[in-house]
Fold this sequence. Notes:
By secondary structure, chain A is mainly α.
Amino acid sequence: xxxxxxxxxxxxxxxxxxxxxxxxxxxxxxxxxxxxxxxxxxxxxxxxxxxxxxxxxxxxxxxxxxxxxxxxxxxxxxxxxxxxxxxxxxxxxxxxxxxxxxxxxxxxxxxxxxxxxxxxxxxxxxxxxxxxxxxxxxxxxxxxxxxxxxxxxxxxxxxxxxxxxxxxxxxxxxxxxxxxxxxxxxxxxxxxxxxxxxxxx
Amino acid sequence: xxxxxxxxxxxxxxxxxxxxxxxxxxxxxxxxxxxxxxxxxxxxxxxxxxxxxxxxxxxxxxxxxxxxxxxxxxxxxxxxxxxxxxxxxxxxxxxxxxxxxxxxxxxxxxxxxxxxxxxxxxxxxxxxxxxxxxxxxxxxxxxxxxxxxxxxxxxxxxxxxxxxxxxxxxxxxxxxxxxxxxxxxxxxxxxxxxxxxxxxx
Amino acid sequence: xxxxxxxxxxxxxxxxxxxxxxxxxxxxxxxxxxxxxxxxxxxxxxxxxxxxxxxxxxxxxxxxxxxxxxxxxxxxxxxxxxxxxxxxxxxxxxxxxxxxxxxxxxxxxxxxxxxxxxxxxxxxxxxxxxxxxxxxxxxxxxxxxxxxxxxxxxxxxxxxxxxxxxxxxxxxxxxxxxxxxxxxxxxxxxxxxxxxxxxxx
Amino acid sequence: xxxxxxxxxxxxxxxxxxxxxxxxxxxxxxxxxxxxxxxxxxxxxxxxxxxxxxxxxxxxxxxxxxxxxxxxxxxxxxxxxxxxxxxxxxxxxxxxxxxxxxxxxxxxxxxxxxxxxxxxxxxxxxxxxxxxxxxxxxxxxxxxxxxxxxxxxxxxxxxxxxxxxxxxxxxxxxxxxxxxxxxxxxxxxxxxxxxxxxxxx
DNA sequence: TATGAATGAGATTTCATTCAT
DNA sequence: TATGAATGAAATCTCATTCAT
Lengths: 201, 201, 201, 201
């Protein structure tokens, strides 16, 4: 059993050490040799911990996603207003710091892989993310409804909002696109319609 | 005197003949040899009409997009109600016929390429599509506003709607996803909020 | 018969028009397409006047050599002293003007081809050049002997001098090599040994 | 533990095993596939030891040159008279055995490459050879001067002699050229002029 | 005679993966 | 468990030459 822990640990170490590299190069230009070099292990060793290059990249993505999820949850809990919570939920598509840029790149690379040659495992992963975030979003909105701050119809928009965020991400490499806080604007516009009364204050 | 060839025509012929192949295999698994075989020309001939493999794929995408744009415009003009027009605009993300499936695959492959290694030319192309469709959408919505069928605020949702459609596309490979008419539902939900009066009828 | 003249003329035109190109790119990097483009004829037309790419390049070299030979002869006749005549003979390996640099490049490229894959025709051409120049050189030296300005043994050095000049050429791409007037120095050193008496004046 | 390989040794093995092949075909017609076949390794393996085809060929040339240098030095030391030492130095341009023919071919191919598309590295290598041999030659001549067997002026001919040898090499493929011992004749002629007194004995 | 579209063999190089040690 | 040498399939692209028109 400690052996298993060790294996898992090393797997994670390798994946994490190559995250930056993956961000820079993307799936197709990342080579297994580079990953090995970066992790200070031999090329053959990589295959003791991963089944294939795809497996490596998937692990990188999973670890990054896990870390991001934790952070998002924390941020949601640390904010008060509904809109802030929603923004925290979608920070991937809103934030401008370099960490966010890196994460966007990882997520976009993930989507690129899925779009190009979706494996069942990856599709499942994508679906899980979608469900997880949509559920969190619904929880937030439900609370807003309970607190009479949002109209009940708002629930219908949870999925749509998530899709919108995803769509915004797909344009994020366009020059100046993020300068304009696109998703935030969309959220604002939507909230005008679904908030109850007192936004004017 | 030499054989006279309509170079543009032949370029299109080659691109079109390989569209199916591209849909099946995607950018990375498509080989120039296959394209040549498919077009019944020699490998070298391909390079008389295209500069590189990327050029081939881009041509395939461009022709497909052009054909789709024409169809969309026609469909928009052939429908009456605003909602139908909007649905026609987004038919890529709504339709279920095999032709639509193929087109979705092409578009998704295009996005995958852009996400993975965006060339300026491709980004520009993506941006142009976005602008074109958003403008068409705004025209439709404006008409709705003029006809007092839509609240003026609706204009703010044009970009958001487009992003939403794009996002929906990014999930379109998920099992059963399309059975539920996702984007149509989102549009319906949104229209409830932005239509004036008589939707209840 | 006028037809033949025309053919020859056009052959020369094509060759001459591509001389500059050949100087720039060398045999392996020169393409037949470029030659055609440069001569304002179609690719196929080239093969009406030349048998192969090698044939084109050989023609370029031949015309250049012919022109150079004529010039050398003129220069030899226009100078008085023996040493000047010898220098005129070897101007290819001595001169520093851009025209000379171009000619050196052509000749060196010719040697490169011969060294790499000597065809009988090319070897014969090289041999002819060698014989021609050696004979001219001998004529000059003979005159010097007759005029009692050179020791009779000097005749033995004709071949050696030519080889020396050829060898100097083989280093001519070395940085600063030509600044030092290498061949002229060698000739001067040799003349000290073979001149009769009065060089000190 | 992995198979331990002396990378340098293997690099040399591959280069040496392909020397013959290189002699036969020259740079442009030598293919990496052939090199691999010849060395009984896979094509990919070649690239574990060499960066490019040019790198392979350069290695072949370097190893051949190194071996030749050693041999020349030995031969110089094993002979007594100045003229013999000089002949030993230039044995590349004099010897008639098959080994010498092979070495000439290698050297000529090297010159062809340098003439055609000189890389800085290759030019430097050529220059180093030139300097090395010229220095050795000067050492020999200096000893002759010290021993009062050669006139001091002879030193001025060191560079010229080397150029002459190089030049002779450039004609070495001409039919019957070597039968006549060309360079030896040139050397003899020169020595008549620069030797002190007693050559007649 | 002139054209230029078509050819297709062939070359270099990359890199994920395997496996003997 | 760790290694890293070896693999070899596969991919893109070039270009001299041909030939139907």
